[in-house]
Design goal:
By secondary structure, this protein is mostly helical. The chain has helices at about 10-25, 25-40, 40-70, 75-80, 85-120, 125-140, 145-160, 165-190, 195-205, 210-225, 230-235, 245-275, 285-295, 300-340, 345-365, 380-405, 410-415, 425-450, and strands at about 370-375, 375.
Length: about 450
């Protein structure tokens, strides 16, 4: 496939919104708030922002350079710049994105179920009812699978339309809608009685709680939140025009991503504090804790509680969809180019295979004990393998590849758009990619394995 035939994003705002949509997902709206809750709130956020600057932006620019220069899917991009051996690193990114698509679709399907349940008024009840609702639903052999398939085929519909008419057009619609919903819920949450304590928790740092676990947790969250080493960033960069300012785009995307994460905290913690809910509720926060928070916080005005719950799970579904689109595109672009399939055939094929794998992942959370490996359900195994092993390894190798093996002139030319942009920060960027980022990623990896 020649470069002339390759599709591109049609506008600068399309590039920013689509790539930001790739980064903005459940990692921001779900994982970031509970990570902040478990690690002291404001202090964690400050360290997180520092880690985005230290690790996130250089890694984003690295993947931008590889993707835009090669103008290919992730596996072929690494191969073009470094040969067959490095193509395996790109292939690791494709495989990581594919596996994450399969089990991420399950959680994304839960968001659709909760959106439906909000519309139908099924989330009203005491805390025990809400807890049992989630447990019953997540272990059901039919409903979670149904919603997994639904969201995958919605994603497929967008992907089939192509880069400009599908991904870019959807991002221009979904991302502004996501921001509007987020701001509406933030305002409603912050107006609740006693919400000030939640705002204080989120914005007033307590540096006495900082230890290596808080620091490494923030480092890992910055990596997870920006979708680094999943193949998404590299694939989207292959659709960038040659005059795209890579450094500026990376900063803009990191700012949007971090802003959404902080707003998600302002959406959740004021409401939680207003009803006396512990901010470190963990992964169950959005499916068990928050329905109870909405029920109690707006008990005097049930209609408002109904609307806020509806908006929240609509927001969650949009965030899940924007990320799922970018994850799906990684595998679609690979199949489209490597197997010479039409985009439609490649997208449908990826969707069907992911739906099958997602079905088994969903069923493994229920009563199907046989769907386990190494003592973990298939869902947990995919989550652990991709998040704890494949992402850090892929990110580490990407930094080593770009920092030490790709010709320095090529990296500088891409960084400066062949000398048309100022390259005053190039030395800082290269130092970060060669030394700071690999060390940071290695620390994340060792921490996740329990070594440090």
């Amino acid at each position: 496939m020649s470069n002339i035939e390759r599709a591109n994003f049609g506008s600068k705002i399309g590039i920013i919104l689509a790539t930001a949509g790739s980064a903005v997902g459940l990692g921001n709206v779900w994982r970031f708030p509970y990570m902040a809750g478990q690690n002291g709130g404001a202090a964690f956020i400050l360290i997180y922002i520092f880690c985005v600057l230290l690790l996130g932006i250089p890694c984003l620019v690295s993947e931008f350079i590889i993707g835009r220069h090669a103008q290919s899917n992730t596996a072929r991009a690494y191969g073009k710049l470094g040969g067959k051996g490095w193509a395996l690193v790109g292939g690791l990114g494709v495989l990581t994105g594919f596996l994450i698509t399969s089990y991420y679709a399950v959680v994304s399907g839960w968001c659709l179920q909760y959106l439906y349940a909000s519309i139908a008024g099924q989330l009203k009840g005491d805390p025990q009812y809400v807890t049992e609702y989630f447990q019953t639903f997540s272990q059901d052999p039919v409903n979670p699978v149904f919603w997994t398939v639904v969201i995958l085929f919605v994603t497929c519909f967008v992907i089939v339309k192509g880069v400009e008419k599908g991904i870019e057009r959807a991002s221009k619609l979904l991302m502004p809608t996501l921001f509007v919903l987020l701001l509406v819920i933030v305002v409603a949450s912050c107006l609740l009685p006693g919400a000030g304590e939640g705002v204080k928790f989120l914005l007033k740092p307590d540096f006495t709680i900082i230890d290596k676990n808080v620091f490494l947790g923030a480092l890992g969250q910055s990596f997870y939140s920006l979708s680094i080493a999943m193949g998404c960033i590299c694939t989207y960069a292959s659709y960038f025009s040659r005059d795209t300012n890579l450094g500026k785009s990376a900063v803009q995307i990191a700012v949007i991503d971090s802003l959404v994460a902080i707003l998600a905290g302002l959406m959740i913690f004021p409401a939680a504090f207003s009803v006396g809910v512990n901010p470190d509720s963990g992964p169950s926060l959005i499916f068990i804790t928050l329905p109870n928070v909405f029920n109690e916080a707006f008990a005097s005005v049930p209609v408002v509680g109904y609307v806020i719950s509806l908006l929240f799970y609509g927001l969650l579904a949009l965030a899940a969809l924007t990320s799922l689109i970018s994850l799906h595109e990684v595998s679609t672009a690979f199949c489209h180019e490597e197997f010479h399939l039409s985009r439609r055939t490649a997208a449908i094929g990826v969707t069907v295979v992911c739906a099958v794998i997602g079905t088994f992942c969903s069923l493994s959370l229920g009563h199907y004990d046989g769907l386990q490996l190494f003592g973990k359900s298939l869902f947990d195994l995919f989550d652990y393998t991709t998040g704890q092993i494949m992402l850090p390894v892929g990110g580490f190798l990407t930094c080593v590849f770009l920092g030490w093996f790709v010709p320095k002139k090529l990296v500088r030319d891409e960084f400066t758009n062949n000398g048309t942009l100022r390259g005053s920060l190039f030395g800082v960027f290269l130092f970060a990619v060669r030394f700071v980022c690999p060390l940071g990623i290695l620390l994340i990896f060792l921490h996740q394995l329990g070594v440090v």
